[in-house]
Amino acid sequence: MQNAEKKLRPTLRENKRYLLLDGNFVIDDIEKAILDYIGVLGYAKAGISFVRKDNKVILAVNREMLNEIRASLVLSDKTINARRVSGTINGLGK
User: Fold this and answer.
1) Percent helix, percent strand, percent coil in the chain, to nearest 5
2) Which site in 2, 22, 26, 59 is 20 to 30 Å from 8, CA atoms measured?
């Protein structure tokens, strides 16, 4: 078994978009809003991961599910705003 861990080709990798979130919320509020709107299967398809949690909340989302995630944040009871969307984390700071 030579080289058991092979990297995926760039065309097979999942394309991510990064959302910069602001508002009065905790991480559980974001997860609840997404689960209420698109459900468990949609949450899994979105491939959501939280990148930074220190001063800013950055959410990494699959590119195909970006509109559904943004809609779920708008429809939530809490004030969660997607202030910016970018293809790179460094692009959010500009």
Assistant:
1) 40, 30, 35
2) 59
Q: What is the pTM of this model?
A: 0.83
- Provide the CATH number for the domain around residue 28: 3.30.70.3250
Q: 45 in helix, strand or coil?
A: helix
Whether residue 4 lies inside any domain: the answer is no
Beta-bridged to residue 4, according to DSSP, are: none
Query: Based on the number of CB atoms within 10 Å of its own CB, is 88 exposed (0-12), middle (13-18) or buried (19 or more)?
Result: exposed
* Geometric angle at alpha carbon 80, from 78 and 82, rounded to 5°: 165
